[in-house]
């Protein structure tokens, strides 16, 4: 069998890549920060649900009461 000689991939400077990505996405039509109230509420509710109901995490670490979870979610936010 003939062996094919492959050259190692060329490395690109991260600053060049970052600059190119910044230029490419600088005119993006959306914003991910600051989240809307609806998004914040969804994340908060998901956190409360995850910590206070049976899940993979609760099997290992246990569940937290809903009241404690609501307080923790507000504190985290």
Structure description:
The chain has 77 residues and is an all-alpha fold. Helices cover 58% and strands 0% of the residues. The chain contains four helices and no strands. It has helices spanning 14-25, 37-52, 56-61, 66-76. α2 crosses α4. It is elongated, with a radius of gyration of 23 Å. The N and C termini lie far apart (61 Å). The mean pLDDT is 75. This is WPP domain-containing protein. It is found in: Cytoplasm; Nucleus. Residues 30-77 form the WPP domain. One of its GO terms (biological process) is lateral root development. Keywords: Cytoplasm, Nucleus.
Separation of the first and last Cα atoms: 61 Å
Q: Helical percent range?
A: 55-70%
Shape: elongated
* Secondary structure: number of strands: 0
Work out the oligomeric state of the chains in this entry.
Answer: single chain
Q: What is the element string, with H for helices and E for strands?
A: HHHH
Judged by helices, strands and strand pairing, the structural class is mainly alpha
Residues in β-strands, percent: under 5%
Q: Which value, in Å, is the CA radius of gyration? A: 23 Å
Task: Write a brief structural summary.
The protein has four helices and no strands.
Topology:
Blueprint: H1 14-25, H2 37-52, H3 56-61, H4 66-76
Helix pairs in contact: 2-4
């Amino acid at each position: 069998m003939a062996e094919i000689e492959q050259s190692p991939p060329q490395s690109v400077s991260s600053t060049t890549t970052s600059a190119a990505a910044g230029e490419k996405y600088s005119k993006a039509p959306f914003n991910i920060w600051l989240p809307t109230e609806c998004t914040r509420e969804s994340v908060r509710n998901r956190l409360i649900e995850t910590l206070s109901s049976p899940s993979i995490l609760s099997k290992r670490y246990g569940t937290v009461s809903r009241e404690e979870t609501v307080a923790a979610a507000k504190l985290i936010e």
